[in-house]
Amino acid sequence: MITKEQFEKALEERQTREVREKLREGCVAVAGLGGLGSHIALMLARTGIRRLLLVDFDQVDVSNLNRQAYTIDQIGMPKTEAMKQRISQINPWIELEFFQGKVTRENAASIFKGYPVICEAFDGAEEKAMLVNTVLEQLPDSVVISGSGMAGAYSSNLIKTRKVMQRLYLCGDETYGVSDEESLTAARVSICAGHEANMAVRLLLGETDV
């Protein structure tokens, strides 16, 4: 087992002092811990931010294993608990907060209040729209990064990050969503997750352009 000091020293050797100081105080919320959100959460934990809020209502299922960051022994566990377990094996010193349940228009603002960056990683279009609209309307100090279009086996280069408005970014190809005609693969979903995680890091560093 390594110490917190050893973990921090390793990060300091790979991040400049200015970047490390900003990321060390970074706080991000991840809404949805499926194929997109589970990988976002792990990337941010590896980056060494201070606090992470993990939000999901579901449990790990065998159908998740083809693209989500869980393991066979975690089947049946709440995704928040399973992700806590995974993160503890990477960065046990990160501050973790949890919400195990459904996010609604009525409770979204109270759940995500205090988080300057919110990564949206829900499955359904209605849930995505609800969270984005609620953040923009009720949380003026928060920026939301949303995923849109990561299904299929199309070119990786189609997945991009776009600034839609002052406090809204979209990551994905914005075309190929979940449907009966499209596959979901670990590689393409993870690419989109990388875009969201990277944009979250850039926002923590004060970089708002894409």
From TrEMBL:
Gene3D superfamilies: NAD(P)-binding Rossmann-like Domain (3.40.50.720). Coiled coil: none annotated. This is Thiamine biosynthesis protein ThiF. It comes from the Bacteria. SUPFAM superfamilies: Activating enzymes of the ubiquitin-like proteins. GO terms for molecular function: tRNA threonylcarbamoyladenosine dehydratase; ubiquitin-like modifier activating enzyme activity. One of its GO terms (biological process) is cyclic threonylcarbamoyladenosine biosynthetic process. Residues 18-207 form the THIF-type NAD/FAD binding fold domain.
